[in-house]
């Protein structure tokens, strides 16, 4: 009934806004976008990849937004006919999934229908869309924001998060407040703000859990502080995520209760060509779910990204870090660790920078499983990465980027001491022959004694500006399986439309976006992608 009321309220508000827009003399405008990602799969005897029954998958999105003065309305239609391999199975068929109406002026806004929002860094709560991950947990309900002279900021939300093609029975209610001391005291060169948020999550529970003392609701909160002065920054956040209940057959107990919590600290400096960022984070039972116990990759109610280098090269992403948020089956309550990121730009005309400058970047990240619940004791290593890269523009035509990464990861995410170590080398070379024709080449090598042994990879890209791009790539596991994972493709872009066609063999592994990853199965096939906006 709650979902029906939300939908009726949103649709009535949408109809009222459209009626008002038709009667208003001010001219509005319409924006939109369309995206289709379609793959034809084929069986591959070499990799033993099996195609789905109809050899076909297609994800499609149509988004329309209409703006008139302070009013906006929008809808999103999604069609999965059927969903692409590796995406959550709850995405299916076609449906009008998102629709909203909003009104906003300089200091105040209100939204009815679907909306996206985030409290702080997102550790307590975040609703967002990421089509690469197959994630859209938009909330159906109402959102209110208010800003008073940039001193006080307020957000209030109420609704039911989306899961798959429909909205769940889970309800969330929350408020987030920020208070700027620097704005109130009129500080010129210093920024200091104190923030906090609270979230109530309600989901009907089973009789068995209720008999063991379980509650259908949990209350979480976060406290944050942000400081900036003369290039220095400091951000701190503490999150209490509330009680979590896990199915657990032990000592005649069917469920076990845990308390979610997280701590985050970021220190940074930027100035005179130098950038330094130090981050530390501890997580414990931070798997905030829309539907308790559901294992889908889209079943997320908060944002816990990997805080390490986010690579774009093929071999550096074979085993990315996926944060350990708590695993009752392996008795791991979470993880702790951090990263140090350093960037320096040697300016033009200096001895090291030369005629066109030189950019250096280094990163060290390391994370450990918690040794003991409720403590900051580090247990087994879960992930470690040290990387160093150099970017140099040698001439107007030639640019080079060299990268070295040493990665060590635990296949059990820190449950056991066993780890795998790999050394990865990358050369990224770009050359511009004419203003309209350029090439880019990647040469990569991965050396390891564990896992699947050594890999090599290469990519060649030909760009004919401003419209055409053609590429070919290959990852070869010459250390063990002797399998080539090849891909070839071309794209054409004109104005706001881009069409891309590719064919290749894809290994089982991970797809990551914004520090969040999902696993994908191996497959072989041809892919067509079309994106356009207006």
UniProtKB/TrEMBL annotation:
Q: What UniProt keywords apply to this chain's record, in alphabetical order? A: Signal
Signal sequence region: 1-21
What InterPro entries does UniProt report for this protein, alphabetically? DUF6029
Q: What is this protein identified as?
A: DUF6029 family protein
Please indicate which superkingdom the organism of origin belongs to. Bacteria
Pfam families per record: DUF6029 (PF19494)
Q: Which organism is it from?
A: Bacteroides vicugnae
